[in-house]
Amino acid sequence: MAGEPQADCLFCKIVAGEVPATVVRESETTVAFRDINPQAPTHVLVIPKVHYPDAATLAAAEPSVAADILREAAEVAAGDKVDKTGFRIVFNTGSGAGQTVFHAHAHVLGGRGLNWPPG
Questions:
Q1: Rounded distance, CA 18 to CA 32, Å?
Q2: Are strands 42-48 and 106-110 parallel, antiparallel or unpaired?
Q3: How far apart are CA 50 and CA 106, in angstroms?
Q4: How far apart are CA 45 and CA 26, in angstroms?
Q5: Considering only CA atoms, which of 24, 14, 4 is closest in space to residue 73?
Q6: Active-site residue 43, yes or no?
Q7: Cα separation of 44 and 93, whole Å?
Q8: Average pLDDT of 81-102?
Q9: What residues does 81 pair with on adjacent strands?
Q10: For 1-118, where are the alpha helices, taking DSSP H only?
């Protein structure tokens, strides 16, 4: 069922505390933790506690939770002190866009120059 934890989902296991993660923030609806393969000095994933396969599905089903992810992403940036120098929030949606874990999540990247276009 949409929104329900999935037994085979890595991020659902992190939410449940079954898989360790370096958690930097947690709210009623989200968990934010350091990426295990960081692409920048700040690289934190912000995930909803509910399971949806991607950002588009989450936004359609629970727009308030999608907004919570953006709010928490800004708090992560402030906590890592990259809010003034600039940071990027990335939602990869689908394997063609580089999504590898099919649980909606945002990447918060900062602490180095982030060129455009990304590649």
A1: 15
A2: antiparallel
A3: 14
A4: 11
A5: 24
A6: no
A7: 17
A8: 96
A9: none
A10: 10-15, 55-61, 63-79
Peptide bond into 20 cis (omega under 30): no
Choosing from 43, 51, 103, 105, which is the catalytic residue? 105
Q: pLDDT digit string (tens) for 26-64?
A: 999 999 999 999 999 999 999 999 999 999 999 999 999
DSSP 8-state secondary structure symbol assigned to residue 115: -
Q: How many CB atoms lie within 10 A of CB 111?
A: 17
Q: Residues 57, 50: contact at Cβ < 8 Å?
A: no
Number of CB atoms found within 10 A of residue 88's CB? 17
Using alpha carbons, list the distances in angstroms from residue 113 to 19, 40, 42, 51, 70: 32, 9, 11, 32, 21
